[in-house]
Design brief:
The complex is a heterodimer of chains A (139) and B (391).
Chain A lengths: L17 H8 L4 E5 L5 E2 L14 E5 L3 E10 L13 E8 L4 E4 L14 E8 L5 E7 L3
Antiparallel strand pairs in A: 1-2, 1-3, 4-5, 4-7, 5-6, 7-8
Chain B lengths: L9 E8 L10 H16 L8 E4 L9 H8 L5 E4 L7 H14 L4 E9 L35 H16 L3 H4 L1 H10 L13 H6 L2 E4 L1 E2 L8 E10 H4 L7 E7 L31 H6 L8 E3 L6 H9 L8 H4 L18 H4 L6 H12 L12 E5 L5 E5 L1
Parallel strand pairs in B: 2-3, 2-4, 9-10
Antiparallel strand pairs in B: 1-7, 1-8, 4-7, 5-6, 8-11, 10-11
Classes of the chains: A mainly beta (139), B alpha/beta (391).
The complex binds zinc ion (ZN).
The site of zinc ion has 8 residues of chain A, from loops.
Chain lengths: 139, 391
Amino acid sequence: MPQNSYQKPLPAISSLNKPYWDGLRNRELMLQKCNGCGMIWAPPSPLCPACWSRKFTWTRLSGRGRVSSWVVFHQAYFRSFEGDLPYNVAEVELDEGPRLLTNLVDIGNDAIRAALPVEVVFDDVSDDVTLAKFKPRAA
Amino acid sequence: MANFALKDRSAIVGVGESAYGRKLMRSAIDLAADAIVGALDDAGLTREQLDGLVVSFGSPIGADGDTLAQVLGLNLRAYNQTWAHGRFTGSCIQWAALMVNAGLADAVACLASVSFSAVRRPMMGGGGDREGGREAGGGHGEDPVFGMTSPGAGAAMVARRYFERFGADSRALAAVPIAFRKHASMNPHAIMREPFGIDEHQRSRFVCEPLHLLDYCLINDGAACVIVTTAERANDCRKSPVYISGMQPLPAGREEFIWSYPGMGIAQQSVFEYQPELQAVYKMAGITPADVDALFTYDAFSILAWIALERWGFCKPGEAAAFTQNGRIEVGGELPMNTNGGLLSEAHIMAWNHQVEIVRQLRGECGRRQVKDASVIQWANAFGDSIVYRR
Ligand SMILES: [Zn+2]
């Protein structure tokens, strides 16, 4: 499929979250880590939500986590998702702590389980945007 | 800590509503007029005595405060408005209670008016939902990039988490919409009045699994209004005042997610066993949950009733599934909930219809669905705000 045919909603890339999206482009799952207290957080913030330090480092994460919850859409809200119905949306709790919303791939919706071990896969959906999706991995 | 000196210092003195319907073909301002005029009449107040307005859920689905004042010819000293979410109903009434006690206004109309049928593009999910794509995520955990859209999807995420964590299931959850539909069957004003059972609930299509269509509230048209004034002025009104005895405002932070209580592990919440101590609203009102004769909650989705019961300490985490069985939350049960039929079956007027019903219950005006000797009724939500009303 040509890259420019992607019809689904694209992320709003801002000054705050650009390093996250740049990271995905480079096949790296990056989040901010506080230089002071060590917290790693999502979504991106101008300061550490725990200690309010503005000194943080965009840090590459393991890309591993577990499914903490999930849903399966049976209704088409977006026309661009109609062909995917029924499609899943999951919350993945990363080994480093934060949770990300994502789609689980390489798994049937009926096989999704709580605490399922997963790892990130990078989905290039356009010339500029790569999405972090997750697939099952051996525990 | 709330100012306990405000206990019983303000009251609702009038309630009013428009017709409720799936497609009334009437504008939000048109519907709001019925609710405001009705509430003033119920209170025995004149238009000239109304000098404050608090609106939740404005345009384009609803009507905004400034246009209401202009079009309806109101002379307001003070008005205020929240953004277009149902979560602010209790907040609006709390503001009004503060306003009349601070002397910023004498009598405040609080309302929402909605005309969903007048809006061409659905704002509750999909391409019309601009808020869902706001910076750092939508107000109900939306992320359109992954097809995560609509308030119900966030509730479905909580429901799945709850089911997995506590071993509950959709069949147990059905008790909530079944109870509220039973209440609606006794309410001539309700849009959906035909009772149903578990099998029908299970057969209704999934919208966002694990929630079925019958776990979802209505999308409709209508307006409802309450008039708030001071306890002193309330004595001069037409009917018995319903006093605001306790108030607890709406919390926010990383440990909060709109459809769950802290500790559930949704979005960025920590995971722990939530143990509510006696909440501030009870301390202010001088009661405990055991004193509550009926409980009203924002039931946009069935799971929110379970979350509310546990958040406010009516049962422990994981126990609401069992608590809501066998008619316990029905009229005649131990803790009747949403006796109007709720957003699930009466109408989705952003729960302003619930405030109207609370007042009528405390006045003893509810006929077949009257909660016997109701004297204390609580408004308490999954998202953490509450008002204790007493007659
Ligand atoms: Zn820090």
